[in-house]
Amino acid sequence: MKRLNLTCLILSLLAITFSCKKTKVSGSNNPQNGIWISRAAFLGPALGEAATFTVNNNAYVATGINPMIPAQKLTATYKYTADTIKNEKAGYDSAYGSWAQVADFPGQARSNAVGFNIGSTGYLGSGLANDGQTALADFYAYNPVTNAWTQIASMTNGGSSFPRYDAVSFSFDTAAYVLTGEADSNYFGDVWKYSPSTNVWIQQSNYPGSPRAGAVTFVYNGQGYLATGFTPGSKWAEGSLCYDFWRFTPGGGADNPVTAWVRLSDIYTTGAGSFDAAYSDIIRYHASSFMILGQPDGDKGYITCGANSAGIDLTSTWEYDFASDRWTAKTPFDATPRSGAVGFTLTGTVPSPPGVASTRGFIATGLKQGSAYGFTDCYEFFPTLTASN
């Protein structure tokens, strides 16, 4: 299988971008198992492989690649603010939201970077440079009050730099962890802790799972969850796609992977139990994730989009129940299949009969594999509603 090479995208004369309509309800499944509602279109160019973080209940999307000019990565930064849903009965299509451009990312242009927040500050770094080959290790902090970026320590240890792209992160109250990723066809399982109080990166013990790139994460109840991704040669992979799934607890032996990491149920049909017989296509890479908490039947995480082992973009959407460690297929993403989209979670009460959910999940932008097509559309997912609600 060949992975998407962002430097070798086939150029076309016209990029297809998709603007959001105010109301679009998925009709692909009957009975439906959730609906996707279109939101305000992304303000910037059609792009993919951007980085995202959330601060003060706004989502920030920065850097990335415009597939029309794949050798020219981006530095622009945009903020998404979701409208409040006012009408619970029919309100899921009333929260259009808005995008605004903010200060440009000051580092060199890049794609496939990683973003996270610590408190009220956003952070972005690492990634893939314009040449499509050079991995980066520099990081920057964003202050939304002053609308200004400041360079912080690069990912280094003892004078050695540890650049990468397609890494992921866990963000906690006073520190964040950046882990996995790829550089020069090497796939990583290392873990790096960043504390803003010291402005230092400290390498932790490697996590015990498959080295990988292009994974997704959740942070829930003070623990990090790591799933999916691309991992050639791993014993826990199918078609080079990771099926091992892990939970990380910071502060509980972070330097000891035996106590910091717990392996959860595999996300592929491995014969571990009858529950996994329906796990047809959770495994993927360059997917997107978000959480919707406070639902009547519990808190859930979601994975959607991304590509399979044949390099074909997906729309299938899977819901993870944190309480039971089980996955359920949901209504597929209701737009063009894509990889490298951003997913983010914002707080806010949304209709979820017979109760309400306390957070909201979104997907925006992305790339069509093997082409010069990028996207500007933005969608919100309502996991318990149907078109008739």
Secondary structure: elements and pairs:
Layout: E1 35-38, E2 51-55, E3 58-62, E4 77-81, E5 98-102, E6 114-118, E7 121-128, E8 135-143, E9 148-152, E10 156-157, E11 160-161, E12 168-171, E13 176-179, E14 182-183, E15 186-187, E16 191-195, E17 200-204, E18 216-220, E19 223-227, E20 237-238, E21 241-242, E22 246-248, H1 257-260, E23 261-263, E24 288-295, E25 298-304, E26 317-321, E27 326-330, E28 342-352, E29 355-364, E30 378-382
Antiparallel strand pairs: 1-30, 2-3, 3-4, 4-5, 6-7, 7-8, 8-9, 10-11, 12-13, 13-16, 14-15, 16-17, 18-19, 19-22, 20-21, 22-23, 24-25, 25-26, 26-27, 28-29, 29-30
Description:
By secondary structure, this protein is an all-beta fold. Helix content is 1%, strand content 38%. The protein contains one helix and 30 strands. The strands form nine sheets. Strands 1-30-29-28 form a four-stranded antiparallel beta sheet, with no helix packed on it. The chain is globular and about 60 Å long.
Brief rundown of the structure:
This protein has 389 residues and is mainly β. 1% of the residues lie in helices and 38% in strands.
Tags for this model:
389 residues, mainly beta, Neuraminidase, four-stranded antiparallel sheet, 1 helix, 30 strands, 1% helix, globular, disordered N terminus
Biggest beta sheet summary: 4 strands, antiparallel
CATH architecture: 6 Propeller
Whole-number count of domains: 1
Helix content: under 10%
Main sheet strand line-up: 1-30-29-28
- Determine Rg (CA atoms, Å): 19 Å
CATH topology annotation: Neuraminidase
User: Given this structure, which CATH class is correct?
Assistant: Mainly Beta
The CATH superfamily is known as Kelch-type beta propeller
Mean pLDDT: 87
Continuous helix count? 1
Q: Which runs of at least 5 residues are low in confidence (pLDDT < 50)? A: 1-31
Give the terminus-to-terminus CA distance.
Answer: 42 Å
Shape: globular
